[in-house]
Design brief:
- The protein is built from 9 helices and 17 strands.
- The mean pLDDT is 95.
- It has 2 domains: 178 residues, 2-Layer Sandwich (Fructose-1,6-Bisphosphatase, Chain A, domain 1), CATH 3.30.540; 132 residues, D-Maltodextrin-Binding Protein, domain 2.
- Bound molecules: 6-O-phosphono-alpha-D-fructofuranose.
- 6-O-phosphono-alpha-D-fructofuranose binds next to α6.
Length: 327
């Protein structure tokens, strides 16, 4: 409703430390600006790709760079963070004198979907800043150290899904007032599901545990799972994970033989995709794993480190982990 409490008052009610609450509100305000930029799309001539790639070797969309700059500028001018790391920046950026927080983000995840008008999003993670002038190594903290994490989904509604360590709340952008208002007090991922999300185009590369898991789901009620399953793949992590957060399911981007041959541990990045999404999944009663280990327990060894991702309904994640354990 249009009189639902605003983000700032909910954070105050949750006794979130003042500067952390202000930092979250600063990020939310920047994302409201990104929502406008994404929504205006072709009207502002910002669709399409640039003639350049990011540190990941991925072609950058204009809105990737615009979103990245909006977040960095907002955080720099706020003084509410001491360091920033972004998918779009090779190294972290120190902000001497800022509040003792490190902010990591994927400014516009799924941006390859923008030109076809599919939901994309911003993913962010907040860690404690250990020193005065953080360097890349200060960011390499396990996901369990996160003080807060969230995403903003730029879809039919612009939604902020956030946890500060005491459950998951959803807020909806009230465009009239330019504020996020509480729209779901406590999101919970159902323990069981009948829906899995994976890029089936990679089936020929799948490792045996994944191949057998998917085949068993596809076998339906007459198969070993004893029930029918549905499959979804939007190819925008924020959109796919938001569906899982809302109605359950399991999201998979596992490693496979082709990735292993290239020396890649997975496609998705640990620090600003898997960790924040894994934090939210666990805070909502779900689970987040590589298939072999809990994502939030991983000791990172690189800012842009990639990991396999299996996250969502706890029983389904456990089912997949049991298959990896059997080998
Ligand atoms: P594929 C977007 O590029 C992204 O990083 C995630 O948002 C998404 O889940 C995944 O890659 C999609 O990958 O191989 O299906 O294009």
């Amino acid at each position: 409703m249009s009189d639902s409490p605003e983000l700032s008052s909910v954070l105050a009610g949750d006794a979130v430390p003042g500067d952390l609450a202000q930092l979250i509100c600063c990020l939310a305000e920047a994302c409201a600006g990104i929502a406008n930029a994404v929504e205006r799309g072709s009207l502002s001539g910002t669709l399409g790709a640039l003639e350049q790639s990011n540190v990941q070797g991925e072609t950058q969309k204009q809105l990737d760079v615009i979103s990245n700059d909006m977040l960095i500028d907002a955080l720099r001018s706020s003084g509410l963070a001491r360091g920033i790391a972004s998918e779009e920046e090779e190294h972290s950026v120190a902000i001497p004198g800022g509040a003792p927080y490190l902010v990591l983000f994927d400014p516009l995840d799924g941006s390859s979907n923008i030109d076809v008008n599919v939901t994309v999003g911003t993913i962010f993670s907040i860690l404690p800043a250990p020193g005065d002038t953080p360097t890349d190594s200060d960011f390499l903290q396990p996901g369990d150290q996160q003080l807060a994490a969230g995403y903003v989904a730029y879809g039919p509604s612009t939604l902020l899904v956030l946890s500060t360590g005491d459950g998951v709340r959803q807020f909806t952008l009230d465009r009239a007032g330019g504020v996020f208002r509480l729209s779901h007090l406590a999101m919970e991922v159902p323990k069981q599901t009948g829906e899995f999300a994976i890029n089936a185009a990679r089936q020929r590369h799948w490792l045996t545990p994944i191949a057998e898991y998917v085949a068993d789901c596809q076998a339906g009620e007459n198969g070993p799972r004893g029930r029918d399953f549905n499959m979804r793949w939007i190819a925008s992590m924020v959109a796919d994970v938001h569906r899982v957060m809302t109605r359950g399911g399991v999201f998979l981007y596992p490693d496979d033989h082709a990735m292993q041959a290239e020396g890649k541990a997975g496609k998705l990045r640990l620090m600003y995709e898997a960790n924040p999404m894994g934090f939210l999944a666990e805070q909502a009663g779900g689970a987040a794993s590589t298939g072999r280990e809990r994502i939030l327990a991983i000791q990172p060894d690189g800012l842009h480190q990639r990991v396999p991702v299996v996250m969502g309904s706890a029983e389904e994640v456990a089912e997949i982990e049991s298959r990896f354990a059997r080998g």
